[in-house]
Each structure stands twice: as C-alpha cells, then as structure tokens.
Write a structure and sequence with these properties.
Layout: H1 2-11, E1 18-21, H2 23-33, E2 37-41, H3 50-61, E3 68-75, E4 81-88, H4 110-185
Parallel strand pairs: 1-2
Antiparallel strand pairs: 3-4
Helix pairs in contact: 3-4
C-alpha cells in the first residue's frame, strides 16, 4: 500500500518524504526509498499517548508540505483490519473547508490557524496510532489463539500416540507372560 501511494504521488509530480514508525517498516522502505527518508521513530512507547503523537506531529509539521498522509491499519473487528490512508492538509487558509464549522478569533489570525493545524495533526496522528495499535493487538490475540489451539491439537495427538505405544508394550508383555506360563505347563 505504501509503495502504491508513493508511486501515485510521484506520478502526480509531488515531492514525497517518508517518516516511518516502527523498525520493520523503516528497514523495508529504507532499501527502496532511502533518499526520501526524513526520519523514523523505532523506539516504541506503549501504550501510545497524546504527548507522543504531539511530539511526532511536531517533527512532521517542521517540513513544508501540501499534505501529510498517514498510512495505517484501521481496526474493523477482532479478525479484520483495513489498510487505510488519512490525510491532513495545512489549515493556514481561513477559507479552508475544514474550518467552515469553526469561528477563528481574532479573525484570520495566522498563529491561531497554525495552532489549530498542529492540534488537528496531533489528534489525527493519535487516532491513527490508536487504530493501528488496536489492529496489532487484535492480530496478536488471534495469532496466540491459533497457537494455543494448535498446541492443544498437537498435545492430543502426542497423548494418543503415547497411549497406543503404552498399550502395545502392555500387550507384548502379556503375550510374553502367557507364552511363558503355557511353556511351563506344557
């Protein structure tokens, strides 16, 4: 999904910079898109906090971008998550459609608009982090449930195999005892 989004933005003539959360994503994308990396956050701090989202948003806001796109796994149910994209555009224009529901005072104050943009970026990033963490935990829970089920099935198979081997040994001993007793009688 990430590579497809980068290709689409490249085709539109947009400059693409990449900021990655997580070691696996960083390792994979650095090989194919190394020069585009502007940063990564690999030290995970669980559970995610709004402070972390704010700090990451500050790193992202530092650049001059037309839009910031968050690519993440959106939680749908315990067994389903949907790869999604959430975009945030700068809110520096008082006529931006997102701001129609809000009154900005003092009117058209650039500092207020910048603060609102920073808060919106941090809020959306926090939502993305929470959705992604929920999807990850759900995936881990499902994997552990499958592992427990498989271990139980394996335990049952081994128990059955052990019981068959034990029964065969007992049967062999009984045959030897009966054969020895009939040899003594006979």
């Amino acid at each position: 999904m990430t590579r497809g989004a980068i290709s689409r933005l490249d085709a539109d003539g947009k400059k693409v910079d990449i900021f990655v959360l997580g070691e696996k994503g960083r390792a994979q994308l650095r090989r194919s898109h190394g020069p585009r990396f502007v940063g990564s956050a690999t030290d995970r701090q669980m559970p995610y906090t709004f402070e972390l989202a704010t700090a990451l948003a500050q790193d992202v806001i530092g650049g001059e971008y037309d839009a910031v796109h968050f690519l993440y796994n959106k939680f749908k149910s315990a067994i389903v998550y949907i790869p999604s994209v959430k975009s945030v555009t700068p809110l520096l224009d008082p006529a931006h459609p997102f701001l129609f529901n809000y009154e900005v005072e003092p009117e058209n104050d650039p500092e207020t608009l910048q603060n609102f943009y920073e808060y919106t970026m941090a809020s959306k990033l926090y939502q993305v982090l929470m959705d992604n963490a929920t999807s990850e935990q759900s995936s881990r829970m499902s994997a552990m449930e499958n592992a427990s089920k498989n271990a139980g099935e394996m335990l049952n198979k081994l128990n059955l195999q052990y019981n068959r081997a034990r029964q065969a040994r007992i049967t062999t001993e009984l045959i030897e005892i009966i054969s020895g007793a009939s040899a003594l009688k006979g």
